[in-house]
Structure formats: structure tokens, C-alpha cells
């Protein structure tokens, strides 16, 4: 199966399986749904799967990412990734797969209504080695799903998988099936995963189902016939039909709870991809300076672009701090906070020098989350 956006969105599973995607401020995520009361029995009538879908769909979200990838010429260009997530707290806590947000320069979460509401999101925790990410968006009053107990699953039990399959327009899709097997372990080569030993991501305590899990379903919920989450859709077979895999919700609960109680700090970012300016690069491109951070690309509608920074500019000073190389930019940003307004001194490729004001944004993917 061919990925819809970036190559990293499709990871080959061993045994012919493939992942189907497809200075800071401390923030506190208040747990507004600490122990959801038992769900009332679901009146399934003659269409039980439809009843389950109606209960679950308001809590399923579309997760899209902006990512930088290498163009045929080796220069970074902006691409998009797609996936699914589900709301677990009414104040905007969302669970998805790590590979859905891996490498993101922006994460956008959209609700499932006919006229969806869109939110910027950031990672507050999870377990990337085991493909789990927990996101936070600024919202209140959302409809959260109840987490069930995957330990109670039985072989042959009916389940429903929901997600934005194949990134098709028209809202999420619903597929049905049974639990085919339990407690599987799958290892997936993923050279993009910086926290995975030897570039291999391990899925433990995995649920096997014959419910179709396609590209774009990744990160969506696998639910039982009461609409309770029993798994997180993560992988499917590329060469065989009726084989899908989901991370068991029991194995994910500790990481979800930890992200809610002790979220990663929000860090500032400016929304550019840069490289060091050297004497060789200055000569090659005809730059008027031989130091600074050369802007290879800017994030569409990101802080830098909004402030007037363009591709080909050289950043030489940020917030009064001299930028000798691209690494200096990261060091300066680490000492600042999202929302800070800073002056940035820029030299254009034609030698024009200007100072622009940039309001820093919130980095969607904290460096700490991707560190071994």
C-alpha cells in the first residue's frame, strides 16, 4: 500500500505487516473526568453496530500534521500526515499513535461534526517506543470516551474500529469484526523513531482483529459493543486480508494517566527549518554574511511566516542574542516561552537588513518526548 503523504507514514512490519497510517512554562492538565460513571446499557435494537457508532463518533477526531521532508533536490519541503485520535477527557486530552505525530511541525485536531471544529494540539506525553502519544488541545466540554478493560476481552467477541480511513473526505469510517487473538507481540522497523532501540518499535499485548484497519485509522479507537475503548488501532496486514492489530488499552492506561497528571512542558518555537551559514554556503548561495541560521523553509501560517521571515533569509539575532549557527537558535528559544514577542534581525539574500517582530508559538512535539 502506498502512503498518501510522507514515506515515514508507512512502516513495514516484519512478517509482511505494515503500519497503516499511514526555557519553558509548566502547564497543568486538570483531570476533569477522573473516573467516569458506568455507561448506561446501550439500546442496540436491530442495528447494534450503528448504535455503537452513534455513541462513539462524537469522540473520534481527525489528526493531521505538517511535516518537513526532503524534496528530490534534498531541500526540505512541507508535507502532510494523517491519522485518527479519540478524546479521553472533556478538557481536550486526546490519545493517538506516536507515528501519527512523529516529525510534526504542527498538529491539528478536527472534530467529527459535519462542520468540524479545528484545534492546534501539542504532545503532553505517551510512550513513543510503544507507539502511544497523548495530545492536549485548548477546549472544554468535549465528549470523552470511557476506557474499558482489554483484560476482559474474549476470543470471538465483537468489536468496532473507527477512524479516518485512507484520509477520505466525508468523516470517519466504521468497520466491524471480532477479536481473533490476544497478547500478540509485533516488532516494527522504524528508523524515524529516535527512542526505539535499534530503530525498532515494539507493540506488546496487542489485540488481533479481523475488523479492517486501513491507512488513516491509526490512533483511532477499537471499542466493544458498549462503546468502551478496548484498543488503539495501530497496524494491519499489507498482504493479507482480515488481519488488524490494536494496542490493548490496559497496556496504555499508565502512560495516559502519567501524561495527564504530569504533562510535558510547553516550549517555544518559531516555525522554521534552518541550517548553519558557513563560508562555503555563503559563497555557494552568494550570501552577504558567513554566519547565522539560513532559513530553508517556513511553516505555513507559522510564527516566522506571520512575522515576515522568508525562505532564503539569514537569522543573525533573536531577542538580542547573536545567532552564529542554527544550534544557537534552538538555545535562544529554549530560554523563551510561548507567546513571547521577540525582535529578530534578518539579512536577506540580496543584503537587505531588517528587524521583524515575531510572536513565538507552542512547539507541538517537545524534544523531550523524542529523546531516548
Description:
- This protein has a 6-stranded antiparallel barrel with strand order 10-11-12-15-14-13. A 6-stranded antiparallel β-barrel has the order 4-5-6-9-8-7. Strands 17, 18, 19, 20, 21 and 22 form a 6-stranded antiparallel β-sheet that branches.
- The two termini are 30 Å apart.
- It has helices at 48-56, 98-101, 249-261, 279-285, 303-307, 326-334; strands at residues 12-13, 17-19, 24-25, 60-70, 76-89, 93-96, 104-110, 118-127, 132-137, 158-163, 173-189, 200-209, 221-223, 229-237, 244-248, 266-269, 272-276, 293-298, 314-318, 321-322, 341-347, 353-359, 361-362.
- It contains 6 helices and 23 strands.
- A hairpin with a 3-residue loop joins strand 5 (76-89) and strand 6 (93-96).
- The longest helix is centred in the last third of the chain and has 13 residues, at 249-261.
- Residues 1-30 have low confidence and may be disordered.
- It has 2 domains: 7-22 and 47-261, Beta Barrel (Thrombin, subunit H); 266-365, PDZ domain (Pdz3 Domain), CATH 2.30.42.10.
- The chain is mostly beta strands and 372 residues long.
Amino acid at each position: 500500500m502506498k502512503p498518501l503523504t510522507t514515506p515515514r507514514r508507512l512502516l513495514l512490519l516484519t512478517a509482511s505487516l505494515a503500519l497503516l497510517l499511514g526555557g519553558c512554562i509548566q502547564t497543568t492538565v486538570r483531570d476533569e473526568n477522573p473516573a467516569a460513571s458506568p455507561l448506561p446499557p446501550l439500546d442496540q435494537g436491530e442495528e447494534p453496530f450503528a448504535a455503537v457508532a452513534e455513541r462513539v463518533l462524537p469522540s473520534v477526531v481527525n489528526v493531521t500534521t505538517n511535516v518537513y521532508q526532503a524534496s528530490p533536490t534534498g531541500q526540505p519541503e512541507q508535507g502532510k500526515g494523517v491519522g485518527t485520535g479519540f478524546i479521553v477527557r472533556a478538557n481536550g486530552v486526546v490519545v493517538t499513535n506516536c507515528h501519527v505525530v512523529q516529525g510534526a511541525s504542527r498538529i491539528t485536531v478536527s472534530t467529527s461534526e459535519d462542520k468540524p471544529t479545528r484545534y492546534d494540539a501539542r504532545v503532553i506525553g505517551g510512550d513513543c517506543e510503544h507507539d502511544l502519544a497523548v495530545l492536549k488541545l485548548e477546549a472544554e466540554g468535549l465528549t470523552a470516551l470511557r476506557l474499558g478493560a482489554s483484560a476482559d476481552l474474549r476470543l470471538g467477541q465483537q468489536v468496532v474500529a473507527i477512524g479516518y480511513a485512507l484520509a477520505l473526505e466525508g468523516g470517519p469510517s466504521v468497520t466491524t469484526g471480532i477479536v481473533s487473538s490476544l497478547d500478540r507481540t509485533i516488532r516494527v522497523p522504524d528508523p524515524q523513531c529516535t527512542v526505539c532501540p535499534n530503530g525498532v518499535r515494539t507493540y506488546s499485548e496487542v489485540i488481533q482483529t479481523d475488523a479492517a484497519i486501513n491507512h488513516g485509522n491509526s490512533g483511532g479507537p477499537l471499542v466493544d459493543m458498549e462503546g468502551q475503548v478496548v484498543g488503539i488501532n495501530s497496524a494491519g496486514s499489507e498482504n493479507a486480508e482480515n488481519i488488524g492489530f490494536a494496542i490493548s488499552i490496559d497496556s496504555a492506561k499508565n502512560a495516559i494517566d502519567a501524561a495527564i497528571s504530569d504533562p510535558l512542558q510547553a516550549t517555544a518555537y518559531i516555525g522554521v527549518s534552518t541550517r548553519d551559514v558557513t563560508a562555503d554556503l555563503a559563497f555557494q548561495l552568494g550570501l552577504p554574511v558567513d554566519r547565522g541560521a539560513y532559513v530553508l523553509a517556513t511553516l505555513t501560517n507559522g510564527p516566522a511566516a506571520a512575522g515576515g521571515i522568508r525562505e532564503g533569509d539569514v537569522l543573525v539575532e533573536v531577542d538580542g542574542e547573536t545567532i552564529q549557527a542554527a544550534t544557537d537558535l534552538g538555545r535562544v528559544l529554549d530560554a523563551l516561552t510561548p507567546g513571547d514577542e521577540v525582535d529578530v534581525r534578518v539579512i536577506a539574500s540580496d543584503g537587505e537588513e531588517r528587524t521583524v517582530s515575531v510572536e513565538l508559538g507552542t512547539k507541538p512535539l517537545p524534544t523531550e518526548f523524542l529523546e531516548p
